[in-house]
Design a protein that fits this description.
Keywords: Leucine-rich repeat, Membrane, Repeat, Signal, Transmembrane, Transmembrane helix
Signal peptide: 1-22
Number of helices: 8
Main location: membrane
Radius of gyration: 37 Å
Pfam family, one: LRR_8
Shape: elongated
CATH superfamily of the domain at 67-226: Ribonuclease Inhibitor
CATH topology of the domain at 67-226: Leucine-rich repeat, LRR (right-handed beta-alpha superhelix)
Strand content: 15-25%
Subcellular location: Membrane
Largest sheet: 14 strands, parallel
C-alpha cells in the first residue's frame, strides 16, 4: 500500500476514536469502504475485511470508545513511515506495530500516548539492517510519559545507545522508575547493547516476562531476580498455564495459589519448594499437576482434591510428604496417572471407588512407608502398578490385569499362590526381596505375555519349573533362593532369553546344552552353586554373551577351547574411569578347579577390563600376550600354581589399578621401571622366589629390606553382574514396546523402570558413563554374586 493511504488510515482512526455509538456514521462507513478498496489483501483468507459492504454496520475492532482502545496493525506490509498524527490517538491503550512493514525513525509523538498499557514496535530480528530506528527520540524520550505502561516490546529494533545507556534511559528519571515498577513484560531481544546485565530489574515487582536474548549483555544476573514465587501470583485469576520447572525456587508455595481458579496446567517440578501443598479444590479446570522433585512436607488432606473432575495427571514424586494417602484422589473420574513415589506416606493403599468406571492407567506408590493393601486389588484399566520398597506384608493380593507389576522390596510372606500365572497378563513381574517360601508354582508358565520375571532374594525352594525354559522370557532372575536340582534344559530354537541369573542357590548338574539355542544371551550368572562341568567351550557359539559368572562352582578342565574363539565377557564390575568407550567386559573363572595353562589367546580380548582366574590350579607361566590388554584395570591370578618370571611386557598395562599375583610359584625379580613395583606387598606375597620392590631388594645379589611405602586404601564394593542385568533388561524392552498399553507407559516412565531394577548408586554411575562424565566407581574382588535390584534411596 502507498504512503498516502497509510496516512489516510490514521485520519479515519482518529475520527473513529471519538465514536461512542455501536454503529458506523455514514461518513465513517464511506471512508472505511474507500480504505478497503485501496488495500491489498487476500479475500480467501480474510475473516472480517472481506465482509465490509454498504449494508454492514462496522467499526474497526477494538475502537469502540470508552477506556479500552487497541490499534493492531501488526504483520502487514505498509512500506512506509509512522505518520506524525499518531500522537492524536490520545485514548489508545494498546499500540501494536509489530512487523507491520514500517521503516525509518520511530515518532516522538508516541510518547504523548499517556494511556498506553502495551507498546509493541518489534520486528523480525533477522532483518539487517533493521528498518525501524530508535535514535531521535532516544529510548528515554520515548517512554518518559508512559506512566501506565505494562508491556514493552522493542525486540529487533536498531536502538542507538552506547554501553549501559539503555539501562539509564529506562531507570534514571522518576517517571521512568514508576513505569518500570508497573511493567510486567519487557522484551528487548536482538539489540546490540554491549553492556553489563542491569540490576534494576530487581525492583520490577510486577515483572512476569523478561526477554533479553542476543543483546550482547555480559556479567551476572542478580540472584534477587529469581526469588521465590511471589504471593502476587494469586492476582492472576485468569492464568491457565503456569510452568516454572527447574528454576531453583527455594521458598514455600504461596497460599494465594488457591485463587488461580482458571488454572489448567501446573508444573513447578525440579525446584526446592518447601512447606505444605496448597489446596487446588477451587481450580476445577486443572488437568495436569507436577510438583515432583521438591522439598514439600506435611500431609495431603483429601479435601485438597475434591472437585478436580478434569484432573488427568498428578505427580508428587521425590518430596517428603507424609500421612495417609488422600482417598479422594482414587475417586476422581478423569485421573489416568498417579505418581506418589519417594515420599513418606504410610497406612493403607486406598481402594478404588466406582472401580468399574475408573480410567486409571498408572499408579506408582513405590518407596514410601505403606503397610497394607486391601484385597482383592483389581482394576480393569490399570497398566502399571508399582508398590516396591514399602512395608507391605501378609499374603500377596490378587493381581490386577496390568502390564507392569512390581511388589519387590516389601515383607510379603507365605507361599506364592498356586494359580499365580493363570490370570497374569504382565510383561514385567517382580516379587524380589520379600520372604516368600515354598516352591515356584508351575502355573507361572501360563503367563504367556511375561518377558521379565524377577524373584530373587526370597526363600523359594524345590526345583525350577521345567516349563520356564520354554517360555518367551527375556530376563529370568532367580538369584539368592534355595532352588535345588538342575537348570531346565529345554530352551527352544530361536530362544529369546537375554539374561539368566541363578546365583546363590544349590543347583547341581551341568550347564544346559540347549542354552546354545539362545543366541541373544548376554548375561549368564551361575555363580555360587554346586554345578559340575568341564571347560566353558559349551558357550563358544553364543557370540553376544557379555556377562558370565561361573565363580564358586566345581567346574574343571582347561580354560581354553579347541578353536580358541573366546569371545565371552564376564562378571560386570565397576571402577574409576574417565570415560567408557567400549563394551564393558570382564572374565571371572575364580574359585573352581580349572587347570592347565592360561591360554595365550586371552590377549586377543582387546576390550577386556577385568581378568580374574584366582583360586584354581592353573600352571605354567603368565602369558606375555596379556600385555595386549591395554584397557585392563584388574588382573587377579592369585592362589594358583603359576611359575616362572613376571614378564616385563606387563609394563604396557598402563591402566592397571589392581594386581594380585600372590600365592603362586613365581620367581625372579619384579620388573623394574614401571608401575608394577608401585603395588603393595600383598600383591606378590606367597611367592618364595620373587624379590625386588616392593618385596626384598635383590639387586647385586644382596638382599636388603625395603621400607613399606604407605598406600591409599582402596575400598572395594561388591557389585558383580548388575551391569549385565541392565544390558539384558534394556534389550528385552524392544519386544515389550509392541504392546500398546505398555509402550504408552514405557516412553513416559523409562527412568522409573531403571530405578525399579537397579540400585540407585549403580544407575547413577551408569548414567554418568553414558554422558561421558567422570564416574567414581569401585572394583569388586570378592564373591561376584549377582545382586537383585535394591531399593536404597
Amino acid at each position: 500500500m502507498k504512503t498516502p493511504f497509510f496516512v489516510w488510515l490514521f485520519l479515519i482512526l482518529v475520527h473513529l476514536l471519538h465514536a461512542v455509538s455501536g454503529q458506523c456514521l455514514s461518513g465513517q462507513q464511506s471512508l472505511l469502504l474507500q480504505l478497503k478498496d485501496n488495500l491489498k489483501f487476500y479475500p480467501a483468507r480474510s475473516k472480517n475485511l472481506v465482509k465490509w459492504n454498504k449494508t454492514s454496520d462496522s467499526l474497526v475492532t477494538g475502537l469502540r470508545g470508552g477506556t479500552s482502545h487497541c490499534l493492531d496493525l501488526s504483520y502487514n506490509n505498509f512500506n512506509s513511515k509512522i505518520p506524525q498524527k499518531i500522537g492524536n490517538l490520545a485514548n489508545l491503550s494498546v499500540l501494536n506495530f509489530s512487523n507491520a512493514g514500517l521503516e525509518g525513525q520511530i515518532r516522538e509523538e508516541i510518547s504523548n500516548l499517556t494511556r498506553l498499557v502495551a507498546l509493541d514496535l518489534s520486528i523480525q530480528p533477522l532483518l539487517i539492517p533493521p528498518p525501524l530506528k530508535l535514535e531521535n527520540p532516544d529510548l528515554s524520550m520515548l517512554v518518559k510519559n508512559l506512566k501506565q505502561l505494562e508491556e514493552l516490546y522493542l525486540d529487533g529494533l536498531n536502538i542507538t545507545v552506547r554501553g549501559n545507556e539503555w539501562c539509564q534511559a529506562l531507570s534514571s528519571s522518576v517517571p521512568a522508575t514508576v513505569i518500570l515498577k508497573s511493567l510486567s513484560v519487557i522484551r528487548l531481544d536482538a539489540n546490540n547493547f554491549f553492556a553489563p546485565v542491569p540490576e534494576f530489574f530487581v525492583s520490577f515487582s510486577n515483572l512476569i516476562s523478561l526477554s533479553l536474548s542476543t543483546c550482547q549483555l555480559n556479567g551476572v544476573f542478580s540472584k534477587e531476580i529469581f526469588k521465590g514465587l511471589p504471593t502476587s501470583i494469586g492476582n492472576l485469576p485468569n492464568l491457565s498455564r503456569l510452568e516454572l520447572a527447574n528454576c531453583s525456587f527455594d521458598e514455600k508455595l504461596p497460599n494465594s495459589m488457591t485463587k488461580l481458579i482458571q488454572l489448567v496446567h501446573l508444573d513447578l517440578s525440579m525446584n526446592m519448594f518447601a512447606g505444605p501443598i496448597p489446596s487446588f479444590n477451587m481450580s476445577t479446570n486443572l488437568t495436569y499437576i507436577d510438583l515432583s522433585h521438591n522439598g514439600l512436607t506435611g500431609t495431603v488432606p483429601s479435601t485438597h482434591w475434591v472437585g478436580l473432575h478434569k484432573l488427568v495427571y498428578l505427580d508428587l514424586r521425590y518430596n517428603s510428604l507424609n500421612g495417609s494417602l488422600p482417598s479422594s484422589l482414587f475417586a476422581l473420574p478423569s485421573l489416568k496417572n498417579i505418581q506418589l513415589s519417594y515420599n513418606k506416606f504410610s497406612g493403607q493403599v486406598p481402594d478404588f471407588k466406582n472401580v468399574s468406571s475408573s480410567i486409571l492407567d498408572a499408579l506408582d506408590l513405590s518407596s514410601n512407608h505403606l503397610e497394607g493393601i486391601q484385597e482383592p486389588y483389581s482394576h480393569p484399566n490399570l497398566s502399571v502398578l508399582d508398590l516396591h520398597s514399602n512395608q507391605l506384608h501378609g499374603k500377596i493380593p490378587i493381581l490386577p490385569l496390568a502390564s507392569y507389576i512390581d511388589f519387590s522390596s516389601n515383607s510379603f510372606t507365605s507361599f506364592i499362590p498356586h494359580d499365580i500365572g493363570n490370570n497374569l497378563l504382565a510383561t514385567f513381574f517382580s516379587l524380589s526381596h520379600n520372604k516368600f517360601t515354598g516352591v515356584l508354582p508351575g502355573s507361572i508358565c501360563n503367563a504367556v505375555y511375561l518377558r521379565v520375571l524377577v524373584l530373587c532374594s526370597n526363600r523359594l525352594s524345590g526345583k525350577i519349573p521345567e516349563c520356564l525354559s520354554a517360555m518367551a522370557l527375556g530376563v529370568l532372575n532367580l538369584n539368592r533362593n534355595n532352588f535345588s536340582g538342575s537348570i531346565p534344559d529345554a530352551f527352544p530354537n530361536n530362544c529369546s532369553l537375554r539374561t539368566l541369573a541363578v546365583n546363590g542357590n544349590s543347583l547341581e548338574g551341568q550347564v544346559p546344552r540347549s542354552l546354545a539355542n539362545c543366541a541373544a544371551l548376554e548375561v549368564l550368572d551361575l555363580g555360587n552353586n554346586k554345578m559340575i562341568d568341564h571347560s566353558p567351550c559349551f558357550l563358544e557359539n553364543i557370540f553376544n554373551l557379555q556377562v558370565l559368572v561361573l565363580r564358586s562352582n566345581n567346574f574343571t578342565g582347561n580354560i581354553g577351547c579347541p578353536n580358541d574363539t573366546v569371545t565371552v565377557t564376564l562378571k560386570g564390575l565397576e571402577f574409576e574411569l574417565v570415560k567408557i568407550q567400549t563394551v564393558f567386559t570382564s572374565i571371572d573363572f575364580s574359585s573352581n578347579n580349572f587347570h592347565g595353562e592360561i591360554p595365550k589367546e586371552l590377549g586377543q580380548l582387546k576390550a577386556l577390563y577385568v581378568l580374574d582366574l584366582s583360586n584354581n590350579v592353573l600352571s605354567g607361566q603368565i602369558p606375555s600376550s596379556l600385555c595386549n590388554l591395554r584397557h585392563l584395570e584388574s588382573l587377579e591370578l592369585s592362589k594358583n600354581d603359576l611359575n616362572g618370571a613376571i614378564s616385563a611386557s606387563l609394563a604396557n598395562l598402563n591402566f592397571l589399578s589392581f594386581l594380585n599375583l600372590s600365592y603362586n610359584q613365581l620367581e625372579g625379580g619384579i620388573p623394574a621401571g614401571n608401575q608394577i613395583q608401585t603395588f603393595s606387598t600383598a600383591s606378590f606375597q606367597g611367592n618364595k622366589g620373587l624379590c625386588g620392590p616392593p618385596l626384598l631388594d635383590c639387586t647385586d645379589g644382596v638382599i636388603r629390606m625395603l621400607p613399606e611405602i604407605p598406600k591409599a586404601k582402596i575400598e572395594w564394593e561388591l557389585i558383580a553382574a548388575e551391569i549385565g542385568f541392565l544390558i539384558g533388561f534394556g534389550s528385552v524392552i524392544g519386544s515389550l514396546v509392541f504392546f500398546r498399553r505398555w509402550r504408552k507407559w514405557y516412553f513416559h516412565h523409562v527412568e522409573d523402570i531403571a530405578f525399579s531394577i537397579l540400585p540407585q548408586p549403580l544407575l547413577r554411575k551408569l548414567l554418568l558413563w553414558k554422558t561421558g562424565l567422570v564416574a567414581k566407581t569401585f572394583l569388586a574382588i570378592e564373591a561376584p554374586v549377582v545382586r537383585c535390584p535394591s531399593r536404597s534411596h
